[in-house]
Design brief:
- This is Uracil-DNA glycosylase-like domain-containing protein.
- It is globular and about 40 Å long.
- It has 9 helices and 6 strands; from the N terminus they run βαααβααβααβββαα.
- The protein has one domain: 3-Layer(aba) Sandwich (Uracil-DNA Glycosylase, subunit E), CATH 3.40.470.
- With about 210 residues, the chain is an alpha/beta fold.
- The two termini are about 25 Å apart.
- A 6-stranded mixed sheet has the order 2-1-3-6-5-4, sandwiched between helices.
Length: about 210
């Protein structure tokens, strides 16, 4: 599946893209297909099933982080606003591909899919949940700039987080939600940096 959540009018272009490493495959192809079909009908913040080995659900943690940045996300379909509808989830690697381990080099060598997705979505804001994905993006910078526009200045590192402004997109790379580097205290400490960027996105998007 190209997208890991519902594609709608507000997130199909110029939205907020949340990019994970690789969706976890289920035990059988039928299970995968069934889950993909369910996910394709739900907006990102309402997804329920994604729980990693750490026991910290991927989507649940991201929802928690947005709350720490004072941009809470509704998790019930009946309550979501245009902000939630402007968010789309994707994965760098096909969830059913057998590619391990996930080093920056692995991501860079398998970048055709992600570049195609980003070209279609033309995001205004892009979160990577896995810092080595930003390292991979740097390895394919010429191709990335064809999609996101020219990089404006150098990347700014704040602990394990990285911020990079492109002509057409603000990129933020954070540790994966299951990482030991992703403590809630660290994530909350990024609020002075991230909150204004989300404010700006929401104002420009009208959500």
């Amino acid at each position: 599946m190209d997208y890991s959540s519902k594609l709608g009018e507000l997130n199909k272009k110029h939205g907020l893209v949340i990019c994970g490493k690789q969706g976890g495959a289920n035990e059988t192809a039928d299970d995968d297909k069934r889950q993909d079909e369910i996910d394709s009908q739900r907006y990102f913040s309402t997804l329920k099933h994604r729980v990693g080995k750490s026991g910290r659900g991927y989507v649940k943690e991201i929802v928690k982080w947005f709350g720490l940045w004072e941009h809470p996300l509704e998790t019930e379909e009946s309550k979501i606003t245009d902000f939630e509808k402007s968010i789309i989830g994707i994965e760098w690697l096909d969830g059913h591909a057998k590619i391990t381990p996930h080093s920056a080099k692995d991501f860079a060598e398998n970048s055709e899919r992600i570049l195609g997705l980003l070209k279609g979505l033309e995001p205004k804001m892009l979160f990577f949940f896995g810092a080595n994905m930003f390292d991979a993006l740097s390895m394919i910078k010429p191709q990335a700039e064809e999609v996101l526009g020219k990089a404006l200045g150098e990347p700014e590192k704040v602990g394990k987080a990285v911020f990079q402004k492109f002509e057409n997109c603000q990129v933020i790379a954070l540790p994966h939600t299951a990482s030991t580097d992703a403590s809630h205290s660290f994530i909350e400490s990024l609020k002075p940096k991230i909150k204004p960027l989300i404010d700006e996105y929401r104002k420009s998007k009208g959500v």
